[in-house]
Design brief:
Elements (H helix, E strand, L loop, with lengths): L16 H16 L3 E6 L5 H12 L2 E6 L5 H6 L5 E5 L4 H10 L10 E4 L3 E6 L2 E7 H19 L2 H9 L32 H4 L6 E6 L6 H10 L3 E6 H6 L9 E4 L13 H8 L2 H12 L4 E5 L1 H8 L12 E3 L7 E9 L14 E8 L3 E3 L3 H9 L3 E6 L20 E5 L5 E4 L28 H9 L3
Parallel strand pairs: 2-5, 7-8, 7-9, 9-10, 10-17
Antiparallel strand pairs: 1-3, 2-4, 5-6, 11-14, 12-13, 12-15, 15-16, 16-17
Helix pairs in contact: 2-5, 5-6, 10-12
């Protein structure tokens, strides 16, 4: 009505609750039988916008053929209750049978198919009523959001993301440099485990899952270490201050993600200062880091915190601090990273692997005290992971590089490899079902290759 400057008539409504219920049953049947590939409810703007949004997400073209006799505007642009379902071609006949069994066949219309490439075409019978390119339409569709993003966020980041709409994108993938599973792993015990000889002894080294007020990633972290054969212990800073736990009693220490003290003193700064300015805690942490039989991991807020503790950690003088993302926004997404050669015990044997991993931070940009520090850190091989473009190059542009870190740096370790810090969250992607998108190489397995990071920690105690 707005587009044609008219006053609307009937508003969209649920005319038949029974049909709505039957549609839900049909969708559930399609999922259970692996015949349904995608679903999208009818968008603002009608079925054509729904179809285009699906093509934008899939970076594909569309070949649509409308039923004879329909009014194109009414058919494509009405906003009545409905949905677009993408069904496997081989399963289409069975899908129609199920629709007829649910008395929904009269409500369904075959519209066409997704096709490789950029071409969007719509035909009415033998007449082609529209043809265009996916990238051109997606650029038009995104212009308003891009304009808002340029005002709200860093304008350069907004422009970098907008420019990608017309570029090819192969999507997320998974490439492994190590053997992870023989066939289909449905339990941690079925994953090829470098720590298996030690695990068979039944020993479970204790690891302190450390947290402070505002930390929220301890549950997933404890679960990941438990899967790898550790005994995870929930340890708060107040436990250490009161002497209820001693770091000397633990084989490993992991500082978890979240927002300690609300990050009001800077990312991880308040947490770190509570250690540096307490002589008892300072000595305890320094003694732990100087041991030759321990390891430490810092993730996200824990990464930020441990980076501030570098004066207590041998071999970490050239580590970066972590500052506000270049986008000026909290970034929560699934990003590609590449594991590179480093002394890190936790990343041992994983070098060369390219994998998706969860990121969730507002201050993850690696910032070195000087250019010389960065050069020494990189030349010493202390960088353990880098952000990647989907095409495999080191990511320097937003959003493949979500925070603006130089050379895509996303993880570093100290010189002996016993302390590793990273902004991405491996503990949030150790199970396939945690992934918001599953690359082809990881489909059908229960545990992802990120479990190897935690298993590597277990090998330290063979």
């Amino acid at each position: 009505a707005q587009c044609y400057q008219t006053i609307g008539g009937d508003v969209p409504d649920v005319d038949s609750p029974e049909q709505l219920g039957a549609l839900l049953a049909l969708v559930n049947w399609g999922r259970a039988n692996n015949s349904l590939l995608a679903y999208h409810d009818r968008s603002d703007g009608g079925a054509i916008v729904t179809l285009l949004e699906m093509a934008f997400a899939g970076r594909c073209g569309l070949s649509l053929e409308l039923p004879e006799g329909v009014e194109v505007d009414r058919f494509l642009f009405n906003e009545e209750l409905g949905a677009v379902l993408q069904v496997r071609t081989a399963e289409l006949e069975g899908f129609w049978r199920q629709a007829r069994a649910l008395n929904l066949a009269d409500c369904l219309v075959e519209l066409g198919e997704a096709v490789a490439g950029e071409r969007i075409e719509i035909a009415l019978g033998q007449n082609l009523v529209y043809e265009g390119a996916r990238s051109q339409l997606q650029t038009l569709w995104s212009q308003c959001s891009h304009s808002i993003q340029r005002l709200r966020d860093d304008s350069t980041c907004a422009d970098e993301e907008f420019a990608r709409l017309g570029e090819p994108d192969c999507g997320l993938s998974a490439t492994l440099s190590f053997d992870f599973i023989g066939e289909m792993a449905t339990a941690p015990s079925e994953v090829i485990d470098p720590a298996a000889p030690a695990l068979n002894l039944g020993a479970r080294p204790p690891v302190a899952v450390l947290r402070e007020q505002g930390v929220n990633g301890q549950v997933e972290m404890a679960a990941a270490f438990d899967m790898a054969g550790f005994q995870s212990m929930d340890v708060t800073m107040s436990d250490l201050q009161a002497g209820r736990y001693q770091l000397s009693d633990f084989s490993g220490l992991v500082a978890c993600g979240g927002f300690s003290f609300g990050d009001v003193l800077g990312a991880g700064e308040g947490w770190a200062k509570s250690i540096l300015f307490d002589s008892k805690l300072r000595d305890s942490f320094q003694g732990f880091f100087e041991r030759s039989d321990s390891f430490a991991l810092g993730v996200c807020n824990g990464c930020q915190m441990l980076s501030v503790l570098r004066e207590l950690i041998p071999g970490s003088d050239d580590w970066p601090y972590f500052r506000r993302n270049r986008s000026e926004q909290f970034e929560a997404r699934l990003s590609m990273v590449k594991v590179v050669d480093s002394p890190s015990y936790l990343l041992r044997g994983m070098s060369g692997s390219e994998l998706p991993i969860a990121v969730a931070h507002g201050e993850g940009r690696a910032h070195f005290a000087s250019e010389e520090c960065q050069q020494r850190c990189e030349s010493s091989g202390l960088v353990g992971m880098r952000y990647l473009e989907n095409s495999g190059e080191i990511a320097t542009r937003y959003p493949a590089n979500p925070n603006g870190s130089q050379n895509g740096i996303s993880a570093v370790c100290n010189q002996d490899g016993r302390v590793t810090i990273m902004m991405p969250h491996p503990e949030r992607v150790v199970r396939r079902r945690q992934l918001s998108y599953v690359p082809e190489a990881l489909r059908g397995v229960e545990y992802t290759p990120w479990l190897r990071l935690f298993q590597n920690a277990r090998t330290i105690f063979d």
